[in-house]
Protein backbone atom coordinates (compact mmCIF):
# COMPACT_ATOMS: atom_id res chain seq x y z
CA UNK A 1 0.00 0.00 0.00
CA UNK A 2 1.28 3.44 -0.90
CA UNK A 3 0.36 6.71 0.74
CA UNK A 4 1.72 8.79 3.55
CA UNK A 5 2.94 7.27 6.78
CA UNK A 6 1.19 8.43 9.90
CA UNK A 7 3.48 10.66 11.95
CA UNK A 8 4.26 9.04 15.27
CA UNK A 9 3.50 11.45 18.11
CA UNK A 10 6.51 12.58 20.13
CA UNK A 11 6.72 10.53 23.34
CA UNK A 12 5.96 12.57 26.45
CA UNK A 13 9.30 13.37 28.03
CA UNK A 14 10.04 12.20 31.56
CA UNK A 15 12.26 14.63 33.41
CA UNK A 16 13.42 14.35 37.03
CA UNK A 17 14.95 17.24 38.97
CA UNK A 18 16.89 15.99 42.00
CA UNK A 19 17.79 18.56 44.66
CA UNK A 20 19.74 17.68 47.80
CA UNK A 21 18.22 19.07 51.00
CA UNK A 22 20.31 21.85 52.58
CA UNK A 23 23.28 20.00 51.11
CA UNK A 24 26.39 21.62 52.66
CA UNK A 25 24.73 22.05 56.06
CA UNK A 26 23.37 18.48 56.00
CA UNK A 27 26.85 17.10 55.27
CA UNK A 28 28.23 19.01 58.27
CA UNK A 29 25.42 17.70 60.51
CA UNK A 30 26.00 14.16 59.23
CA UNK A 31 29.74 14.31 59.98
CA UNK A 32 29.46 16.08 63.34
CA UNK A 33 26.72 14.67 65.60
CA UNK A 34 27.02 17.76 67.86
CA UNK A 35 25.50 19.86 65.06
CA UNK A 36 22.41 17.71 64.58
CA UNK A 37 19.16 19.47 65.40
CA UNK A 38 20.98 22.80 65.72
CA UNK A 39 20.76 25.86 63.45
CA UNK A 40 23.91 25.63 61.27
CA UNK A 41 25.29 28.07 58.71
CA UNK A 42 28.07 26.99 56.38
CA UNK A 43 30.13 29.97 55.31
CA UNK A 44 32.32 32.87 56.32
CA UNK A 45 33.00 33.99 59.87
CA UNK A 46 30.42 35.80 61.95
CA UNK A 47 31.85 39.26 61.30
CA UNK A 48 32.48 39.72 57.57
CA UNK A 49 31.30 36.54 55.89
CA UNK A 50 28.30 35.41 53.91
CA UNK A 51 26.14 32.32 54.50
CA UNK A 52 26.77 29.70 51.78
CA UNK A 53 24.11 27.30 53.11
CA UNK A 54 21.73 27.08 56.06
CA UNK A 55 20.30 24.03 57.81
CA UNK A 56 16.51 23.68 58.06
CA UNK A 57 16.74 24.55 61.76
CA UNK A 58 18.39 27.87 60.76
CA UNK A 59 15.89 28.52 57.96
CA UNK A 60 13.06 28.62 60.49
CA UNK A 61 14.62 31.86 61.74
CA UNK A 62 14.75 33.32 58.23
CA UNK A 63 18.44 32.54 57.65
CA UNK A 64 19.24 31.69 54.01
CA UNK A 65 22.16 31.45 51.60
CA UNK A 66 23.79 34.68 50.37
CA UNK A 67 22.75 36.46 53.59
CA UNK A 68 25.42 38.48 55.38
CA UNK A 69 26.66 36.54 58.43
CA UNK A 70 25.97 39.52 60.71
CA UNK A 71 22.30 39.56 59.63
CA UNK A 72 22.04 35.79 60.03
CA UNK A 73 23.43 35.95 63.58
CA UNK A 74 20.99 38.73 64.43
CA UNK A 75 18.05 36.66 63.20
CA UNK A 76 19.29 33.52 64.98
CA UNK A 77 21.58 34.23 67.97
CA UNK A 78 22.26 30.48 68.48
CA UNK A 79 23.47 30.04 64.90
CA UNK A 80 26.58 27.83 64.63
CA UNK A 81 29.00 28.82 61.85
CA UNK A 82 30.96 26.05 60.12
CA UNK A 83 33.75 26.51 57.57
CA UNK A 84 32.88 25.00 54.17
CA UNK A 85 34.70 21.82 53.07
CA UNK A 86 34.23 21.88 49.32
CA UNK A 87 36.44 18.85 48.69
CA UNK A 88 34.08 16.76 50.83
CA UNK A 89 30.96 18.17 49.10
CA UNK A 90 32.51 17.47 45.67
CA UNK A 91 33.32 13.86 46.59
CA UNK A 92 29.72 13.25 47.78
CA UNK A 93 28.39 14.97 44.66
CA UNK A 94 30.40 12.47 42.57
CA UNK A 95 28.87 9.55 44.50
CA UNK A 96 25.40 10.93 43.73
CA UNK A 97 26.29 11.49 40.05
CA UNK A 98 27.32 7.81 39.80
CA UNK A 99 23.88 6.78 41.07
CA UNK A 100 22.24 8.94 38.39
CA UNK A 101 24.46 7.34 35.71
CA UNK A 102 22.95 3.91 36.46
CA UNK A 103 19.64 5.18 35.09
CA UNK A 104 20.48 7.58 32.25
CA UNK A 105 23.44 9.20 30.47
CA UNK A 106 21.32 12.37 30.08
CA UNK A 107 22.35 14.17 33.28
CA UNK A 108 22.61 17.96 33.44
CA UNK A 109 24.23 19.07 36.72
CA UNK A 110 23.26 22.60 37.79
CA UNK A 111 25.58 22.63 40.81
CA UNK A 112 27.06 20.15 43.30
CA UNK A 113 23.64 19.54 44.83
CA UNK A 114 21.12 19.50 41.97
CA UNK A 115 20.69 18.03 38.49
CA UNK A 116 18.17 17.32 35.76
CA UNK A 117 17.79 13.76 34.46
CA UNK A 118 15.97 12.78 31.27
CA UNK A 119 14.64 9.26 31.87
CA UNK A 120 12.25 9.08 28.89
CA UNK A 121 14.45 6.20 27.70
CA UNK A 122 16.28 4.83 30.73
CA UNK A 123 18.97 2.20 31.19
CA UNK A 124 16.85 0.01 33.49
CA UNK A 125 13.73 -0.01 31.30
CA UNK A 126 11.58 1.28 34.17
CA UNK A 127 8.35 2.68 32.79
CA UNK A 128 7.43 5.11 35.55
CA UNK A 129 9.69 8.11 36.15
CA UNK A 130 8.21 8.33 39.65
CA UNK A 131 9.56 4.87 40.42
CA UNK A 132 13.02 5.88 39.18
CA UNK A 133 12.92 9.04 41.32
CA UNK A 134 11.98 7.00 44.41
CA UNK A 135 14.77 4.50 43.73
CA UNK A 136 17.34 7.28 43.27
CA UNK A 137 16.28 8.99 46.50
CA UNK A 138 16.50 5.71 48.43
CA UNK A 139 19.96 4.96 47.02
CA UNK A 140 21.25 8.47 47.82
CA UNK A 141 20.04 7.99 51.42
CA UNK A 142 21.64 4.56 51.65
CA UNK A 143 24.96 5.63 50.07
CA UNK A 144 25.47 9.06 51.64
CA UNK A 145 23.13 9.18 54.64
CA UNK A 146 21.63 12.38 53.16
CA UNK A 147 18.14 13.16 51.92
CA UNK A 148 17.18 14.45 48.47
CA UNK A 149 13.94 15.89 47.17
CA UNK A 150 12.79 15.19 43.63
CA UNK A 151 10.36 16.65 41.13
CA UNK A 152 9.01 14.61 38.23
CA UNK A 153 7.37 16.15 35.18
CA UNK A 154 7.30 16.36 31.38
CA UNK A 155 9.68 19.33 31.13
CA UNK A 156 12.56 20.98 32.99
CA UNK A 157 10.66 24.00 34.30
CA UNK A 158 7.92 21.92 35.93
CA UNK A 159 10.34 19.28 37.26
CA UNK A 160 12.30 22.06 38.98
CA UNK A 161 9.12 23.61 40.40
CA UNK A 162 7.93 20.17 41.56
CA UNK A 163 11.11 19.42 43.55
CA UNK A 164 10.39 22.45 45.77
CA UNK A 165 6.89 21.30 46.67
CA UNK A 166 7.67 18.59 49.25
CA UNK A 167 11.03 19.73 50.67
CA UNK A 168 12.78 18.31 52.60
CA UNK A 169 12.93 14.59 51.72
CA UNK A 170 9.92 14.63 49.41
CA UNK A 171 8.73 13.75 45.94
CA UNK A 172 6.16 15.60 43.84
CA UNK A 173 4.81 14.80 40.38
CA UNK A 174 3.29 17.23 37.88
CA UNK A 175 1.55 15.36 35.02
CA UNK A 176 0.81 16.75 31.54
CA UNK A 177 -2.84 16.88 32.58
CA UNK A 178 -2.34 19.10 35.63
CA UNK A 179 0.77 21.06 34.49
CA UNK A 180 -0.99 24.14 33.03
CA UNK A 181 -3.31 24.48 36.06
CA UNK A 182 -0.35 24.16 38.46
CA UNK A 183 1.39 27.07 36.71
CA UNK A 184 -1.74 29.26 36.61
CA UNK A 185 -2.08 29.17 40.40
CA UNK A 186 1.59 29.92 41.07
CA UNK A 187 2.83 33.43 42.00
CA UNK A 188 5.33 34.55 39.34
CA UNK A 189 7.94 35.35 42.01
CA UNK A 190 8.14 31.58 42.64
CA UNK A 191 8.81 30.77 38.98
CA UNK A 192 12.28 29.34 38.30
CA UNK A 193 14.00 31.84 36.02
CA UNK A 194 12.15 34.85 37.44
CA UNK A 195 14.52 36.71 39.78
CA UNK A 196 13.52 39.47 42.21
CA UNK A 197 14.05 42.27 39.65
CA UNK A 198 12.00 40.51 36.95
CA UNK A 199 9.26 39.66 39.49
CA UNK A 200 9.14 43.32 40.49
CA UNK A 201 8.84 44.37 36.83
CA UNK A 202 6.07 41.81 36.29
CA UNK A 203 4.19 43.16 39.31
CA UNK A 204 4.42 46.68 37.88
CA UNK A 205 2.84 45.33 34.68
CA UNK A 206 0.02 43.76 36.69
CA UNK A 207 1.39 40.21 36.44
CA UNK A 208 1.12 38.49 39.84
CA UNK A 209 0.34 34.85 38.95
CA UNK A 210 0.71 32.34 36.14
CA UNK A 211 -2.85 33.19 35.06
CA UNK A 212 -1.90 36.88 34.68
CA UNK A 213 1.22 35.91 32.70
CA UNK A 214 -0.80 33.61 30.42
CA UNK A 215 -3.17 36.48 29.63
CA UNK A 216 -0.37 38.58 28.11
CA UNK A 217 0.24 38.10 24.36
CA UNK A 218 3.68 37.13 23.07
CA UNK A 219 4.45 40.56 21.47
CA UNK A 220 3.75 42.23 24.85
CA UNK A 221 6.15 39.85 26.65
CA UNK A 222 8.83 40.30 23.97
CA UNK A 223 8.48 44.08 24.19
CA UNK A 224 8.97 44.09 27.97
CA UNK A 225 11.27 41.10 28.50
CA UNK A 226 13.18 40.79 25.21
CA UNK A 227 14.68 37.36 24.55
CA UNK A 228 13.04 35.92 27.70
CA UNK A 229 9.57 36.80 26.34
CA UNK A 230 9.00 33.50 24.47
CA UNK A 231 10.25 31.50 27.48
CA UNK A 232 7.77 33.27 29.80
CA UNK A 233 4.97 32.82 27.23
CA UNK A 234 5.72 29.07 27.14
CA UNK A 235 6.05 28.38 30.86
CA UNK A 236 2.78 30.26 31.54
CA UNK A 237 1.20 27.43 29.53
CA UNK A 238 3.31 24.65 31.08
CA UNK A 239 5.45 24.47 27.92
CA UNK A 240 9.25 24.23 28.08
CA UNK A 241 11.09 22.52 25.23
CA UNK A 242 14.63 22.91 26.60
CA UNK A 243 16.58 19.67 26.38
CA UNK A 244 18.49 18.09 29.27
CA UNK A 245 22.06 18.78 28.17
CA UNK A 246 24.63 16.38 29.59
CA UNK A 247 27.51 18.38 28.16
CA UNK A 248 26.42 21.64 29.72
CA UNK A 249 29.45 23.88 29.35
CA UNK A 250 30.52 25.90 32.30
CA UNK A 251 30.46 29.56 31.29
CA UNK A 252 32.86 30.93 33.89
CA UNK A 253 35.10 30.04 36.83
CA UNK A 254 35.42 32.47 39.71
CA UNK A 255 36.55 32.97 43.29
CA UNK A 256 36.01 35.82 45.71
CA UNK A 257 36.84 36.79 49.26
CA UNK A 258 35.26 39.11 51.82
CA UNK A 259 37.87 40.74 54.05
CA UNK A 260 37.86 40.95 57.82
CA UNK A 261 38.80 44.62 57.58
CA UNK A 262 38.30 46.91 54.58
CA UNK A 263 41.39 47.40 52.45
CA UNK A 264 42.45 50.78 51.04
CA UNK A 265 45.85 50.33 49.39
CA UNK A 266 46.72 48.92 45.97
CA UNK A 267 49.41 46.69 47.53
CA UNK A 268 46.81 45.12 49.84
CA UNK A 269 44.48 44.52 46.90
CA UNK A 270 47.25 42.84 44.89
CA UNK A 271 48.22 40.64 47.85
CA UNK A 272 44.60 39.60 48.46
CA UNK A 273 43.74 38.89 44.85
CA UNK A 274 46.73 36.53 44.37
CA UNK A 275 45.24 33.50 46.21
CA UNK A 276 41.97 33.97 44.28
CA UNK A 277 43.84 33.90 40.96
CA UNK A 278 45.67 30.73 42.06
CA UNK A 279 42.38 29.07 43.04
CA UNK A 280 40.74 29.87 39.69
CA UNK A 281 43.81 28.72 37.78
CA UNK A 282 44.02 25.43 39.72
CA UNK A 283 40.44 24.68 38.70
CA UNK A 284 41.23 25.45 35.03
CA UNK A 285 44.35 23.28 35.11
CA UNK A 286 42.51 20.42 36.78
CA UNK A 287 39.69 20.50 34.22
CA UNK A 288 41.72 21.23 31.10
CA UNK A 289 39.96 24.51 30.34
CA UNK A 290 41.20 27.94 29.33
CA UNK A 291 39.53 31.35 29.15
CA UNK A 292 39.94 34.62 27.28
CA UNK A 293 38.22 37.14 29.58
CA UNK A 294 39.30 38.14 33.08
CA UNK A 295 36.83 40.04 35.25
CA UNK A 296 37.61 41.65 38.61
CA UNK A 297 34.75 42.38 41.02
CA UNK A 298 35.21 45.08 43.65
CA UNK A 299 32.66 45.57 46.43
CA UNK A 300 33.10 48.71 48.50
CA UNK A 301 32.40 49.34 52.18
CA UNK A 302 28.97 50.81 51.31
CA UNK A 303 28.14 47.55 49.42
CA UNK A 304 28.25 49.24 46.01
CA UNK A 305 30.08 47.01 43.56
CA UNK A 306 31.71 47.31 40.16
CA UNK A 307 33.12 44.78 37.69
CA UNK A 308 35.85 45.46 35.16
CA UNK A 309 36.94 43.05 32.40
CA UNK A 310 39.84 42.58 30.00
CA UNK A 311 39.85 40.11 27.10
CA UNK A 312 42.69 38.57 25.14
CA UNK A 313 42.70 37.50 21.50
CA UNK A 314 43.87 34.00 22.42
CA UNK A 315 43.21 31.71 25.36
CA UNK A 316 45.18 32.70 28.46
CA UNK A 317 48.00 30.22 29.05
CA UNK A 318 49.21 30.83 32.61
CA UNK A 319 48.31 32.15 36.04
CA UNK A 320 50.86 34.93 35.45
CA UNK A 321 48.85 36.23 32.51
CA UNK A 322 45.71 36.31 34.65
CA UNK A 323 47.72 38.16 37.31
CA UNK A 324 48.94 40.76 34.78
CA UNK A 325 45.39 41.43 33.60
CA UNK A 326 44.09 41.73 37.18
CA UNK A 327 46.97 44.07 38.01
CA UNK A 328 46.06 46.34 35.06
CA UNK A 329 42.43 46.45 36.17
CA UNK A 330 43.31 47.23 39.80
CA UNK A 331 45.83 49.93 38.78
CA UNK A 332 43.01 51.76 37.02
CA UNK A 333 40.75 51.64 40.11
CA UNK A 334 43.21 52.69 42.82
CA UNK A 335 43.47 54.87 44.81
CA UNK A 336 39.91 54.26 46.06
CA UNK A 337 37.74 56.77 47.93
CA UNK A 338 36.01 54.09 50.01
CA UNK A 339 37.46 50.94 51.53
CA UNK A 340 37.12 47.64 49.67
CA UNK A 341 35.35 44.80 51.52
CA UNK A 342 35.40 42.15 48.77
CA UNK A 343 37.47 41.22 45.72
CA UNK A 344 36.58 38.59 43.14
CA UNK A 345 38.22 37.17 40.01
CA UNK A 346 36.35 35.38 37.21
CA UNK A 347 37.68 33.76 34.06
CA UNK A 348 35.12 33.46 31.23
CA UNK A 349 34.87 32.84 27.46
CA UNK A 350 35.98 29.34 28.41
CA UNK A 351 37.14 26.67 26.00
CA UNK A 352 38.60 23.20 26.32
CA UNK A 353 42.15 22.55 25.29
CA UNK A 354 45.78 22.27 26.12
CA UNK A 355 47.66 25.38 27.14
CA UNK A 356 49.06 27.02 24.04
CA UNK A 357 52.76 27.65 23.55
CA UNK A 358 53.93 30.51 25.73
CA UNK A 359 53.74 33.68 23.72
CA UNK A 360 52.83 37.31 24.23
CA UNK A 361 49.10 37.68 24.72
CA UNK A 362 47.40 40.44 22.79
CA UNK A 363 44.79 42.58 24.48
CA UNK A 364 41.62 43.09 22.47
CA UNK A 365 40.97 46.81 22.59
From TrEMBL:
Its EC number is 2.7.7.7. Keywords: Cytoplasm, DNA damage, DNA repair, DNA replication, DNA-binding, DNA-directed DNA polymerase, Magnesium, Metal-binding, Mutator protein, Nucleotidyltransferase, Transferase. Its main location: cytoplasm. It catalyses: DNA(n) + a 2'-deoxyribonucleoside 5'-triphosphate = DNA(n+1) + diphosphate. Mg(2+) binds at residues 19, 113. It comes from the Bacteria. Binds 2 magnesium ions per subunit. It is found in: Cytoplasm. The active site is at 114. The keyword Ubl conjugation does not apply. The keyword Oxidoreductase does not apply. Gene3D superfamilies: 3.30.70.270, 3.40.1170.60, 5' to 3' exonuclease, C-terminal subdomain (1.10.150.20), DNA polymerase, Y-family, little finger domain (3.30.1490.100). Residues 15-195 form the UmuC domain. GO terms for molecular function: DNA-directed DNA polymerase activity. Its cofactor is Mg(2+). Signal peptide: none annotated. The record marks 24 as: Substrate discrimination. InterPro entries: DNA/RNA_pol_sf, DNA_pol_Y-fam_lit_finger_sf, DNA_pol_Y-fam_little_finger, DNA_polymerase-Y, DNApol_IV, PolY_HhH_motif, Rev_trsase/Diguanyl_cyclase, UmuC. Monomer. Belongs to the DNA polymerase type-Y family. NCBIfam families: PRK02406.1. Poorly processive, error-prone DNA polymerase involved in untargeted mutagenesis. Copies undamaged DNA at stalled replication forks, which arise in vivo from mismatched or misaligned primer ends. These misaligned primers can be extended by PolIV. Exhibits no 3'-5' exonuclease (proofreading) activity. May be involved in translesional synthesis, in conjunction with the beta clamp from PolIII. This is DNA polymerase IV. The lineage of its organism: Bacteria, Pseudomonadati, Pseudomonadota, Alphaproteobacteria, Hyphomicrobiales.
